[in-house]
Amino acid sequence: MIHFFCPSCWREISESVVMCPYCNYDLRDFNCLSYDDKLILSLKHPIKEIRRLIIFLIGLKKLKKALPELEKMIEYEEDPIVLIEIVKTLQQINDKYAKAILNKMRFHRFSIISRYIEQIEYSQIKEFYGKATNFNNK
Question: Are residues 57 and 49 in contact, defined by beta-carbon separation less than 8 angstroms?
Answer without folding.
Answer: no
